[in-house]
Amino acid sequence: MLKRILILAAALGLFLACAPKQAAPKVMARAVPERADDFVFENNLIAGRFYGKALEGNPTSPGIDIWVKLPGALVADEWYKNAVEGDDANYYHRDHGGKDCYKVAVSLGGGASAPLIDGTLRYPTTNYRSCEVLVQTPDSVTFVLHYPAWDAAEGISVALDKEVTVVADSYFCQVRDTWTFTGTDSLTVAAGFKLHNAQPTVEASLQEVDRVAIWEHASDQSVEPEEGMIGVAVVMPGAEDSFFSEELDHALLTRTVVSGEVVSYSFGSCWSKGDIAQAAAWFQVVSEL
Fold first, then answer.
1. Over 90: is that where the pLDDT of 9 sits?
2. What residues contact 165, with CB distance under 8 A and at least 6 apart?
3. By C-alpha distance, which of 190, 64, 192, 207 is closest to 116?
4. Most buried residue, 55, 152, 224, 232, by CB count within 10 Å?
5. Which residues lie closer than 8 Å to 135 by C-beta, 6 or more apart?
6. Whole-structure pTM value
7. Domains with residue ranges and CATH for the chain
8. Distance of CA 45 to CAs 58, 170, 182, 191, Å?
9. Contact 251, 243 (CB under 8 A)
10. Which of 234, 144, 236, 163 is nearest to 192 (CA)?
């Protein structure tokens, strides 16, 4: 009997040794209630977050906060764990193979969107208030963030469902924004990124009718200096206009929609300490999207 058990155990061990190993996930996305209701997303090249309810007022902003990182492993969970459970609340603002060195404040950050009415970006009056992960595989994750209706202008009420897909091995995430509104027949929607004119940070830029991109110095060095450069871009097929606005402190792509219509675009970023070290290389990636 013992001999039979040993033979079966050896066979099981051989089977497990020869069985295909599960590949480590290259993407993740989740709500982070333990850290001010952030919603974090990441693949093996990029990472970032959206602001949730607990951060309203500090800031209340739809902006995408870019986290730079070296290509390879997923790091966001580790950074959050050390910031929340460790003795350094600024852990993810320090360089551990990447960090948060991008200033969002009240803006579109690195690729969000908002109504553009009478020449002004009309931001939501809350951060995202609910979320769902729709699809999750080792190489792709799709989630949706819900922004409740707000008064974007006198007599105009607007709500946003922002669906984002993060795929492995890409510097870009795909967005499907569903805009619903009352009080007007159509709405101009602008997607883009903050220019940080106050610093200033931008070293080079790219502008075409359906895409805008920059190569800039880090905009937030409040915790420790940053020597690397950051590439940021937004690409919107079918955009009606693109422009860099010093007054709005943003680069924007615009499109006019009716209520219930979906606006599709992509936002992306890179870090010069990774695989894209120069502005020309980043603009080439953007041009080929």
1. no
2. 135, 140, 141, 142, 173, 174, 175, 176
3. 190
4. 232
5. 141, 142, 165
6. 0.91
7. 27-288 (2.70.98)
8. 28, 7, 39, 22
9. yes
10. 234
CB 181 within 8 A of CB 153: no
Q: What is the pLDDT of residues 65-85, one digit of tens each?
A: 999 999 999 999 999 999 999
pLDDT (tens digit, 9 = 90+) per residue, 177-202? Answer: 999 999 999 999 999 999 999 999 99
Annotate the chain with three-state secondary structure: CHHHHHHHHHHHHHHHHHCCCCCCCCEEEEEEHHHCCEEEEEECCCEEEECCHHHCCCCCCCCEEEEEECCCCCCHHHHHHHHHHCCCCCHHHCCCCEECCCCCCCCCEEEEEEEEECCEECCCCCCCCEEEEEEEECCEEEEEEEEEEEEEECCEEEEEEEEEEEECCCCEEEEEEEEEEECCCCEEEEEEEECCCCCCCEEEEEEECCEEEEEEECCCCCCCCCCCEEEEEEECCCCCEEEEECCCCEEEEEEEECCCCEEEEEEEEEECCCCCCCHHHHHHHHHHC
Q: What is the mean pLDDT of residues 42-59?
A: 97
pLDDT, tens only, 224-242: 988 899 999 999 999 999 9
pLDDT in tens, 244-275: 999 999 999 999 999 999 999 999 999 999 99
* Cβ count within 10 A of residue 105: 13
pLDDT reported for residue 2? 45
Residues comprising the chain, all counted: 289
